[in-house]
Specification:
30% of the residues lie in helices and 29% in strands. The chain is built from three helices and eight strands, in the order βββαββββααβ. A three-stranded antiparallel beta sheet has the order 1-2-3, with no helix packed on it. Strands 4-7-8 form a three-stranded mixed beta sheet, with helices on one face. Helix 1 runs antiparallel to helix 2. The longest helix is centred in the middle third of the chain and has 23 residues. It starts with a strand and ends with a strand.
Length: 135
């Protein structure tokens, strides 16, 4: 169990503290929903959680197999939906990795990406395709 505590600080902003480490983050409502958009919104954090979880899960598998994963990078696009209510509609993820990986390594890493706990936790109505780019 990990406890995260937070508080509303006004003007559509919140602060949250990670119990085990004391690390703090702030959120702001997005500019298109009455906020200033000056930092991550709560839904931005969902997108961030997905991208970082996918890459972290892949890195764990790579480390177990002795694969250098240090050049990997990712991007996530957050697309909001409004029907029937405002919610996250799509979170396409793109993972960039070295072209030098052999077919077996690619298959293993791609399977790991789809096993990420955040990806598995998303509601089925949230499209979250993962694309792999080898360069």
């Amino acid at each position: 169990m990990v406890k995260i505590e937070g508080r509303y600080v006004g003007e559509l902003r919140c602060e949250a503290t990670h119990g085990p480490s004391g690390s703090r983050i702030a959120t702001d409502a997005p500019a298109d929903n009455m906020g200033r958009g000056e930092t991550f919104s709560p839904t931005d954090l969902v997108a961030t959680a997905l991208g970082t979880c996918v890459v972290t899960t892949m890195a764990i598998v790579a480390a177990r197999r002795g694969v250098d994963f240090s050049a990997a990078r990712f991007s996530v696009e957050k697309h909001m939906a409004t029907d029937p209510v405002r919610r996250i509609g799509r979170l396409p993820v793109t993972i960039h990795m070295p072209a030098a990986y052999d077919a077996e390594t690619r298959t293993i890493l791609e399977r790991a990406a789809h096993a990420c706990p955040v990806h598995k936790s998303l509601h089925p109505d949230v499209a979250a395709p993962i694309a792999f780019v080898y360069e």
